[in-house]
Design brief:
By secondary structure, the protein is mainly α. About 50% of the residues lie in helices and about 5% in strands. The chain has helices at about 10-20, 25, 35-45, 50, 70-80, 85-105, 130-140, 150-155, 160-165, 215-220, 240-255, 280-290, 295-305, 310-340, 340-350, and strands at about 5, 55-60, 170-175, 180, 185, 195, 205. It has a three-stranded antiparallel beta sheet with strand order 3-4-7, with no helix packed on it. A two-stranded antiparallel ribbon has the order 1-2. It has a two-stranded antiparallel sheet with strand order 5-6. Mean pLDDT is about 80; it is low at about 1-10 and about 50-65.
Length: about 350
């Protein structure tokens, strides 16, 4: 991204930025908290006097107005290499372009340098489920850490992180073995708010597997909070920092339970279990649905996907992996069955 010269103004640019930051006027149900944070970062940067005192609209590298578009293309490519999803980059471009369009209408800038900017194509990185060893470790140690039961819920009910943090015990019916999802936690900053799921598909009822019912019953009986995964200090909903610290602690706990150890003056750190993310647990749930031959339409409903294509893409990827594994098993079987018979025959003919 880049800079372009803007005309000297007194208060009007602030009005534009305040309008853009007003959630009631600019809220978009299709945006996640990550997308909104990206927008806030741009706004905060633009309002930082230390970075914009020379009357430049800045959203990345400093450059001359005459070469702004070219340098923005370069930066966009680097933005893609940094690992940002193409959808996120498109939303950033769209937001910045809308802000500059509004600024042009109010004579704040003389052109919109984002208008002809092309977002580079970025191949999505396949998300991997957790390993069998990691899954077994979660099952074996769930009672030893406060994030053990929340991890079970994400793994075996497919909840997103935000859905888990907003989950109340009243949303769980242990008798009917169901879990109702109707809200999610939004954490654009360290302050957490409750919102509806991004789409109607996010509002759903999912079954609770029999295998984890005893863990949920135990956690329910022991809990002193309305929330299933509360802030341990206040008993209320977790903040972004509280969740980050809790998850980091959980990964450390699992690594120790797996046989790892902390670094000391005389010994290096031993990693016996690679850390994983909450989304990997959700992806593992999708994998279990596929392995259990759950049809793709039912999987879409249980996962809360608004777009059928998202679920289909996951199933197609898993099908490809299963096909590759099947071919490898066939080769191993044929190697054992035939041995080097054909190879020996070829050598004999030479």
């Amino acid at each position: 991204m880049a800079t372009t010269k803007i005309w000297a103004v007194k208060n009007r640019l602030g009005h534009v930025l305040q309008y853009a930051e007003d959630a009631e006027k600019t809220e978009n149900a299709e945006w996640s908290h990550v997308d909104y944070q990206a927008m806030r970062d741009v706004m905060d940067y633009a309002m930082n006097d230390a970075k914009t005192e020379k009357q430049y609209y800045v959203s990345g590298w400093n450059c001359m107005p005459d070469t702004a578009r070219e340098e923005m293309q370069i930066t966009k490519k680097q933005y893609g290499k940094a690992g940002y999803a193409q959808k996120s980059m498109q939303m950033v471009k769209q937001t910045a372009s809308q802000v500059l369009d509004h600024a042009m209408q109010n004579d704040l800038v003389y052109r919109n340098v984002f208008e002809k900017l092309k977002v580079p194509h970025v191949e999505s990185v396949p998300r991997e489920p957790i390993t069998t060893e990691q899954r077994d470790l979660i099952l074996r140690t769930w009672k030893g850490h406060r994030m053990g039961v929340p991890a079970l819920i994400m793994l075996y009910c497919g909840l997103r992180r935000g859905e888990l943090l907003a989950l109340l015990w009243s949303d769980i019916d242990l008798d009917k073995r169901t879990l109702s999802i109707s809200k999610a936690a939004d954490m654009p900053t360290n302050a957490t708010t409750i919102k509806k799921p991004k789409t109607r598909a996010g509002i759903r009822m999912v079954p609770i597997p029999n295998a984890i019912l005893p863990a949920l019953q135990w956690a329910h009986d022991e809990s002193k909070s309305l929330y299933v995964c509360p802030n341990m200090t206040t008993g209320g909903i977790m903040s972004a920092q509280a969740y980050s610290e809790a998850w980091k602690s959980y990964m450390h706990y699992l690594n120790i339970e797996a046989g790892g150890r902390d670094r000391s003056r005389s010994n290096p750190k031993v990693v016996a279990m690679e850390p994983f993310t909450a989304h990997q647990l959700r992806h593992s749930y999708a994998t279990m649905l596929y392995d259990a031959d759950v049809d793709v339409k039912t999987a879409q409903k249980l996962l809360g996907h608004a777009d059928f294509g998202v679920t289909m893409k996951i199933y197609t990827h898993l099908s490809s992996e299963k096909e590759t594994a099947g071919i490898e098993k066939l080769n191993e079987h044929l190697d054992q069955l035939l041995g080097s018979t054909i190879g020996d025959k070829v050598k004999e003919g030479q």
